[in-house]
Amino acid sequence: MEQKPCLFTNDGVLEDSAVVAAVESPMEIGVKHGWQEVAGPFRVTDSDGPTVHTLDGNPAFSVYKETVNKHSSTRVTEESFFEVAKGYPFGIARIDGEQIVRDPFEVTDNDGLNCFGDVPEGEFVHILEGQPESLIQAAKQAKDDTGAEMGNPEGLFFFDCISRVLYLEENFEHELEGVRTDETPLVGALTIGEIANDGSGHLDYYNKTAVVGAVDNV
To answer: How far apart are the C-alpha atoms of 213 and 197, rounded to whole Å?
Structure first.
């Protein structure tokens, strides 16, 4: 995950930049992930941005490994970590809202865990697990939450986390089918994190989450 210039512009290839587009068209948003709790909550007792050092005062990797080994047929090691962890993310607890998923992707030298996105110290997290069927249903529910089936929008946007695709593999096509409609054009991207507002609060940065936008008057 080394950062490099990747944004193509008329002024060259840029790093640490963004493209922002504002549209006047009304849009309804659906945000769902489909992951379910298997253990926790664990208190984040030491973290630094996206790096979780300790959970409940113990090295984060040790806690994670002990927990996931009870549920996974593949033993968690530093070498197998990414392959196993794509099916067992963290969920940051939210009152009266769906958890914010955080995707651990590597073990640090001090038995911490690096994640895609910040995990603030003092938060409570669960370890989550998903099945292809629950993730596919969540993407469909995100579309349904936009009212796309009833409102007949002019376009659908679908932003899906690349790590969901890595987990779903050949089932990713079924997730796309759950979001598509016969009459409405669908465009989108596979992303490393999704920024959205689920309608109940401020913007959040999500991992492993399906975000659907239904747009009128495109």
So the answer is: 11
